[in-house]
Design goal:
The protein is an alpha/beta fold and 276 residues long. It has five helices and eleven strands. It folds into two domains: 192 residues, Vaccinia Virus protein VP39 (Rossmann fold), CATH 3.40.50; 61 residues, S-adenosyl-L-methionine-dependent methyltransferases, CATH 2.20.130.
């Protein structure tokens, strides 16, 4: 967002390192599950999907053979990375809080870019954006990394990709909650970037990430006009197009909020905003 991820070097001058920090293949299993969820809208066949906060396009890379995608991100640098990976998809620069494309889609996906929404007012705005772009009978899927009710401090590492030029990147992280009474947590990253000539640069950044309660998500989805669905565990999920309960493919993300827009032509309580 203009006041969140747009401030971080990771999404500006370091964007070209994103495929090495978070390789596209790491999204394969989760994307398979999300494809089944997106395709589970009972009222409309899901063909066109709006991906809000699409970043480097690593989720989209695994969805584009199933859906026609429009990818939106606030970072021009991340969109440039995505265009290389997903040249067949439409790309638009915009803020997920205020974007208005003046059209609707069968489904809207908001993956982990929602983490950079850290106030309830901004979360409401994103959900309203999703509703405005969701066709009656369509589905909206939100995938935050953190939910207040279940948050626990974590430490980890990742990356390790190598590109054709010989560059490598890894990272370490610690995510903790400085003040449990608010709606955000703090992620401290250390990126280790090894250039093709062997020189190494270490970059440290602290990111503020949203962590809202299940109750807040339920309230804001309902306020926007969605009929909220609590996604079942994989073993009880309904596969896309299936007529009976059966496991969905892939790996279910830790947190998943699903909203169905009713078939009636109702509008959200938000005022129409100009296109971002």
């Amino acid at each position: 967002m203009a006041t969140a991820e747009g401030e971080y070097r990771l999404y500006r001058e370091l964007a070209s390192w994103w495929p090495l920090i978070s390789p596209p293949e790491e999204y394969t299993e989760e994307a398979a599950y999300l494809a089944a969820v997106l395709g589970s809208a009972a009222a409309v066949p899901v063909r066109e999907v709006l991906d809000l906060g699409s970043g480097g396009g690593h989720v989209a890379a695994h969805l584009k053979d199933k859906f026609t995608l429009t990818l939106v991100d606030i970072s021009a640098d991340m969109l440039a990375v995505s265009r290389q990976l997903n040249p067949e998809s439409a790309h638009r620069q915009g803020d997920m809080r205020t974007l208005r494309l003046n059209r609707t889609f069968d489904a809207v996906l908001v993956h982990d870019a929602i983490d950079y929404i850290t106030t309830q007012a901004d979360l409401r705005a994103v959900i309203e954006t999703a509703f405005e772009h969701c066709r009656p009978g369509g589905i909206a899927v939100f995938v935050p990394d953190y939910v207040k009710d279940t948050f626990a401090e974590l430490a980890g590492a990742g990356g390790g990709g190598t590109d054709t030029a010989g560059r490598q990147a890894t990272f370490r992280e610690r995510t903790w909650d400085p003040e449990p009474a608010d709606d955000w947590v703090q992620a401290e990253y250390e990126f280790i970037l090894r250039a093709a000539d062997g020189t190494v640069e270490v970059i440290r950044e602290t990111h503020r990430l949203g962590a809202f309660s299940h109750a807040v998500w339920a309230e804001l989805l309902a306020d926007a006009g969605f009929e909220a669905e609590r996604d079942a565990p994989p073993e009880a999920g309904r596969a896309a197009g299936g007529g009976k309960d059966q496991p969905r493919p892939g790996h279910r993300p830790d947190n998943l909020f699903v909203g169905h827009r009713p078939r009636s032509q109702g509008v959200s309580r938000s005022a129409t905003r100009p296109e971002a």
